[in-house]
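Justification of computing resources. Each target in the renewal requires a structure prediction run like the one illustrated here; the chain below, 512 residues long, is used simply to show the kind of job we budget for.
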Amino acid sequence: MSAADVTADTAPFFSSDSEADGPEEQEAAAAAGRRAEGAEPAEPASGVSPVRALLTVFILCYINLLNYMDRFTVAGVLPDIENYFLIDDSKSGLLQTVFICSYMFLAPFFGYLGDRHNRKYIMSAGITFWSVVTLASSFTPREHFWALLLTRGLVGVGEASYSTIAPTIIADLYVGGRRTNMLSVFYFAIPVGSGLGYIVGSQVSNVTKDWHYALRVTPALGLFAVLLLLFVVQEPKRGAVEARPDHHLRQTSWIKDLQALSKNCSFLLSTLGFTAVAFVTGSLALWAPTFLLRAAVFTKERPPCTEGHCASSDSLIFGAITCVTGVLGVFSGVQVSRKLRSRTPRADPLVCAAGLLLSAPFLYLAIVFAELSTTATYVFIFLGETFLSMNWAIVADILLYVVVPTRRSTAEALQIVVSHLLGDAGSPYLIGVVSDSLRRNDSFMWQFRSLQLSLLLCSFVAVVGGAFFLATALFIERDRDRAEKHVAADDEPIVVPKSGRSTRVPVSSVLI
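Resulting structure tokens:
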């Protein structure tokens, strides 16, 4: 369907009597009619050419890759950091927790700005700040572990400016199946970037014999991303691609936005389901390479790490698994969901639920088999992470089609706050605290066993998350229909007659 077809089909939705319209509105309506008849070439509804829209998606994907690459570089060199600062598991877990906390608490602020101001300038400022602070964190001296915690916390400031906004730009460039495809490309960057974080972090550390250099790779790449944002990316019109341009959408206050989102059951339940995904991925992201190293020491496959530099292939292997399983999981999740949509409109939350419920037993087996077979452990991790990754693009798509355009950045921010607050903000620290509490002594056996027992929490949380997605399926049809119809202030849908001219409905009376 062409842009002209969309305009013609949806014109009654916003139309009014011609005598009530001003000259600008009448001219716009006449231009739409001429485009529909083919008299004028149709301009992209978003205001962005197809080529530039595609470039925008790839630039956002590149930045998302850097985002997660930077986030998990620390996990790739965590044993080195523990030996360098002489810290225990609970303090190690704080490195991820302080980052996630600043990231999630600032997300609502950037979500508010993203719904009201130019998004590419907000992202450019945030990424510049993130790159500078990441570089500063690589110069932390041995006696100041608190300085590393502080700089890792400030990194979250820059990343919050990006993660809340980028998906909404894609939503304003594409619609329907093409939006799902582009979101898939965007979310491929999460597992690939995460895997590259482990790989680059561990390999740079191995080559330089200094983990500080691992943190100096992404800042230069981040500043290059800022240049791409400023000179290539073009701000699209909000909602125009869905025939709901922003000048037809009345902006409401932040409080009213939150009130409306609090009544959106699909958004709330899918957010809680995604919180479980965040809990599990956050725990595994930080602790899996360290756990695999301790398992190898426990089974005497590798000598203990007693020097300042811990040469290990576990981060490299786990990073490669994360890259492959992430791409495979995101792709398979989208494809399975697309095929199931012809049978049930509840396909998206059902696929998300299946992904979590199937990942739980494989993650459990991976943790249990670590002391018996390294090969079996990697196989189970591969399967568990593949099913877990099925959620990423689908959850993002659910949010975008159950929330109207003027609230999407706020919804993204709220989802980030909840999923991180109850998910990966505390899970790495919680796993570390449980591990320290279970450890009876500092032997290599108890270093492994305590961490093994604490990681079993991941399987339980995955099952709970699957239950939340099953509950989402009960409301998904109703909430998607409400978003498409633009629910009015009194919760009554706008009436669109099947034939004839539409009933006059002032745009100012519509609560978007």
